[in-house]
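Help! Submission page says 'invalid entity' but I think these are all valid:
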Amino acid sequence: MVNEGEVRSRTISTTRMEAFSDGVFAIAITLLVLEISVPEGSEDDLLRAVLHEWPSYLAYVVSFATIGGAWLAHNVITEHLKYANASLMRLNLLLLMVVSFLPFPTRLLAGYIRHDNPERVAATIYGVTLLVSAAMLALLWIYAIRAGLVEPDMTEEEIRELTRRLNPGLIGYVVLIVVGLFVPLVAVFGYFFIALNLIVPIFHITGRERKVPSRRA
Amino acid sequence: MVNEGEVRSRTISTTRMEAFSDGVFAIAITLLVLEISVPEGSEDDLLRAVLHEWPSYLAYVVSFATIGGAWLAHNVITEHLKYANASLMRLNLLLLMVVSFLPFPTRLLAGYIRHDNPERVAATIYGVTLLVSAAMLALLWIYAIRAGLVEPDMTEEEIRELTRRLNPGLIGYVVLIVVGLFVPLVAVFGYFFIALNLIVPIFHITGRERKVPSRRA
Amino acid sequence: MVNEGEVRSRTISTTRMEAFSDGVFAIAITLLVLEISVPEGSEDDLLRAVLHEWPSYLAYVVSFATIGGAWLAHNVITEHLKYANASLMRLNLLLLMVVSFLPFPTRLLAGYIRHDNPERVAATIYGVTLLVSAAMLALLWIYAIRAGLVEPDMTEEEIRELTRRLNPGLIGYVVLIVVGLFVPLVAVFGYFFIALNLIVPIFHITGRERKVPSRRA
Amino acid sequence: MVNEGEVRSRTISTTRMEAFSDGVFAIAITLLVLEISVPEGSEDDLLRAVLHEWPSYLAYVVSFATIGGAWLAHNVITEHLKYANASLMRLNLLLLMVVSFLPFPTRLLAGYIRHDNPERVAATIYGVTLLVSAAMLALLWIYAIRAGLVEPDMTEEEIRELTRRLNPGLIGYVVLIVVGLFVPLVAVFGYFFIALNLIVPIFHITGRERKVPSRRA
C-alpha cells in the first residue's frame, strides 16, 4: 500500500485503457482467421483440401480461446481497479504486445504441425508466447495490488482467491512446453484446456465479491 | 428462473462484453473486403477482370448482410439483459468465434463458385457456418431467458415473440444447405434473403416492448 | 413527422450503432495501409522502388481523407438523432458496406493508375464508389429528417443548412467521374479536394446550432 | 485564447473523436504482426528461419512501443480538452493518417535492415514517419492551447510542463535520422528509447496536475 499523496500524484482513469485494450484484444482475435487458407488450385478435391487444413482450425480455436480467456481475465482485473498509474499502463502495453503477437506463432503452429521436426519448434514458440502472456496478466494483477490500485471494498481473502486463480496457467504452460518437445499435439490440446479453464472459473470469483450487480453506464 | 442469491453470486456487467463483441463484429465485417482482388496482370482488360470477380462481390454482400444481421440480433439480445454470467460470456465467445471465422468460408465461396464440383463443397461449408452462427445466437437468447438474466420488464409474450423471430433462420439455413448441394447459387441468394430478413423484423419487436426511448449514456 | 405512438413502437438507442459504425470506419481507414507495398527484390535501389509507388500513397491519402470526411459527416448526423429505427439501421449498414468496400477500389486505383487504359476503368470504379457512399450519407440524413428522428431543438433553417452542406459532394463526384474518363489523375485530385471540403465546413454548422458544449459522458 | 462566443460557435464533444482515435491506434498497433512471417519451405530448419527474422521482431517491438507511446500522449492531450473544434478534428485525422501509415515503413525496415544500402533508405523513411507523427502530436497540443480548448483548471505551469515533455522526441528523431544514414541499427534502438521515454514520464505530469482521480464514467 502507498500513502494517499503518492497515489494522487500519478493516478489516471482506466476508461480509455479499457477501451484501447478491448480494441487490441478484439482485433488480435479477429485477425486469426486471416491465417487460414486453402492452397491455390484445390479445385480437384476442395473437400479434401479443406479437411487437410485441420491444423489451421485447431490453431484458430486454441488461439481464439486463449485470447478470449486473457480478455476475460483482463476484464476481471480492470473491474477491480480504482484507477491506473504510469507503470500499470506500461505493463498493460507489454501484455497487449504479447497478445497482438500471438497470430504469428499461431500461423507457425498451423503451418508446421505436420512436419516432424519443425512441429516441435512451432509448438515451443507457441507455448512460450502463451506462457509470457499469462505471466504478464499475473504481473498486472500483482502490481495492481502492490501499488494499492485495487478497489478498497475487496477483502484480503478475495484478493488472495483471485491471485490463486490467475496462477495455475503458469505452471500448466511450463509443463506443456516440455511435453510439447516430445508430443507437440498433446501440448496444443493442453493449451486449449488451460484456455477453457481460464474462461470458466474466473467469473465465479467475480460474482462472489460483487454484492450488487453494478452497471458501469 | 434462479433465486436472487444465486444470481448475485455470479453476475457481471454487460458493458465490456458489448464493447468487445461490437469490436469483433465490426472487424470481421470489415476484413471481408480483403478477400476481394483482381489477378495480377489484368492490365489488358481491367473492366473484364473486375466484372469477372462477381462471385467475390456476391459473397461480400451476403456475408456483410449476415454479419450485420447477426450484430443487430446480438444488439437486441444484450439490450434486454440485466447482467451477464460466466456461461453467457462463454456462449458469447463461442458465437464470436463462429462470426470471426466467416471470412474464410466467404473466401472459399468467392473462389470456387464457378467450379462445378467444388462450388457444392464451398456453398455447404458456407451454409453450415451460417447455420452454426444462427444457432449460437438463438442459444444465447434461450440461455439468457432460462438463467433469469433478462430484464424483468419484458412480458412473457414479448419474450416469446423475440424467441419466435430469432428461429426461422435456423430452418431456412438447413433447407438451403440441402438446396446448395444441387444449385449452390440459389442457396447463396437464399442466405442473402435470410440475412435481410434478420435485419428487418427484429426492430419491430424491439420497439413494441420498449415504452420510452432509452439512452444508455 | 410521425405521431408519437408510431415513433415509440420502433425506436432504439443510437449508442451501439455509433460504436459499431466508429469501429467499421476506424478499421476501413486503417486497412488502407495494407494495400501499400514495394515489389520483392527492390534491394538494388530501394529509394527508387519506394518513390515508384507514388500512386499507392496518393490513393492512400485520398481514401483516408474520404473515409475521414465520411466519418465526420456520419458523426454530425448521428449527433442530431434523438433515436434510431429499423430502417435507419439498415441504411446505416448499407453505408458501412460501401465504406468497407473502399479499400478494394483504392487498391485498383493504386495498381493501375500508370497503365493507359485500365487507369480510366480504375478511376471510374473508384469514383462511383465514392459517389455511392456520399449518396448513402445524404440518404441517411434525409431519411432521419423525414422519419422525425432528428432532435427537436434543431430549427428548420439549421436542418436545411446541414442538408445543403451534405449535397455538393454528389454533383462533384458525378462531374469528376466524367472527367476521370479523360484525365483520371485530375479526377483523383478532385476526389481529394471534395474530401477536404467535407472535413472543413461541416463543423461550422455543427457549432452554430449547438448552444452549449455538450459532453455525452 | 478566443472569446466565449467564438468558442461556442464551433465546439463539438470529444467523445467520438476519442473512440475513433482509440480504434485507429488499436488497429494500427495490432496490424503490425501481419508483417512478420517466415519464408515458405522453412521445414528443414524452422528454428533458424524464425531466428533469422529478428529484424521483424525488432521492428515490431519498436513500432508497437512508438504507437503505444503516441496513444498515451494522445490520451493525455484529449484528457485535458474541454471540447474539440473543426481544426482540431482535422489535425487529429492528419495525426491518425501518419500513425496508420506506420506499418508500411515498419515492413520496409524489417525487410531491408540486413541489406547494406537499402537499410539506410528504410531507416530514414522509418525515422521521418516517426518524426512527422511526433510533430503532429506536438502540433495538436499546441493548437489546443492556442485555441483555448484546454480545460481551465490547468495552471500555466502545468501546460508549460506538458508542452516541454512532448517536445524532446522531435529533436531526438532529427538526430537519429542523421545517425541512421551511417549506422541504421543504432538509430532503430534510439527510436525504441524515445518511445519508452514517451511512455514513462508523461503520466508523472498527468498525475501532478490531477487532484482527484476522475472517472469519466
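Support: the input was valid. A stray whitespace character was the problem, and the output above is from the cleaned input. Chain C has a mean pLDDT of 82.
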